[in-house]
Amino acid sequence: MKVFRPIYVSEFKCDGEFCGSRCCRNWKISIDEDTRKNFQSLPDREKIFRHMTKENSFRPTNSGECPFLNENFLCNLQLAHGEDFLPAVCQSYPRVTYQLDDENFLQGMTVTCPVAAIDILLREEPITFEVADELKTRLVFDFTKKLSMPVEKFLSAQVESVKILQRRELSINRRLKLLCEFFGETSMPVDFDAESNAAALAEIFGETYDANLTVDKKSRLVETFLAARENLLPQLRENFSTVIENYLVNEFVMRCYPCAFKGDDKFNCRVFVTAFMLAEFAAVLTALAHGKLTVETFLEMLCALSDKLDHSQGGMDAIKNFAELHDAEIFAAMMLED
């Protein structure tokens, strides 16, 4: 067995007190069949099963918390019976694990977890990787049928993409252009169209956050972004260049680009770039709302956006639709700024 993963996956340690056990609140906690069988072997199983729904998930309390979360932000199930009696999703999160074939696995972490976000995004040195020989997670997604290329080629594409994204002598925008070129995105030299960029991102932003924006509200959002982008985007890219690099590397690995979605390498690369541009759009709006963008507010925004992209179909569908509907030249004009 070979498990390819960023080094921080093995270093991660949950700290529910730090984040208020965010993953134990307002999320559906599904119970897998193996965990259900484990519960049946316990003497206090009736106390556990009375908190389960017919759909095999824990019924949250009136305040939206998992019924087993205690006042110290710890899990009473784990305290009483050990980690093996946690549902697979709880035991695995925030790790995300994909099976590539019989022998190879890919593992990443999602920044929807605030503790993981700090571990990943605030690293000063470039993210490094390791190959492990065992899995310590029970939740594994079967990616064998989704790979559009041999495993060796996929892993090589990931390695080369990470190298491009970590070229610190280049601007973030230049790295993204090189990434598109690496995946065969050839386009005529075009001038960047800031207004079209803002309009497209406002549309995607509304879909992502279920904002149901009217035409007038979208217009105002576009005007607000355009008025602020010239000053705020350079500051964002300069002040948070390492955070942005780490975010891009983590997203590329964790979502299994360039095979994340049905379509060729070029399409997946467009999705990746557009999703990042949406993050920048949200960061500018966050900076305007708070008066400035701090490390804390930036990480909180990225955490919330990742939550939306993971658990709300609208945003990722809007990103994919945009990537699919525009040819190379128009895409470059709207999303690849010099």
Give an overview in words.
The chain is 54% helix and 7% strand. The protein is an alpha/beta fold. It folds into two domains: 10-92, no CATH class; 168-335, no CATH class. It has a five-stranded mixed beta sheet. Strand 2 and strand 3 (104-109) form a beta hairpin. The N and C termini lie far apart (43 Å).
Describe the structure concisely.
The protein is of the alpha/beta class. Helix content is 54%, strand content 7%.
The tally of helices reads 16
Mean pLDDT: 91
Strand order of the largest sheet: 4-1-3-2-5
Shape assignment:
globular
As a whole number of angstroms, the C-alpha radius of gyration is 21 Å
What percent of residues are in strands? 5-15%
Output the structural class. Answer: alpha/beta
Largest sheet: 5 strands, mixed
Please give the share of residues in helix. Answer: 40-55%
Keywords:
2 domains, five-stranded mixed β-sheet, about 55% helix, alpha/beta, 16 helices, about 350 residues
Topology:
Elements: E1 2-6, H1 8-11, H2 16-19, H3 33-40, H4 45-49, H5 76-81, H6 88-92, E2 95-99, E3 104-109, H7 114-121, E4 129-132, E5 141-142, H8 151-165, H9 172-182, H10 194-208, H11 215-239, H12 241-254, H13 265-290, H14 295-311, H15 313-325, H16 328-335
Parallel strand pairs: 1-3, 2-5
Antiparallel strand pairs: 1-4, 2-3
Helix pairs in contact: 7-14, 8-12, 10-11, 10-13, 10-15, 11-13, 13-14, 13-15, 14-15
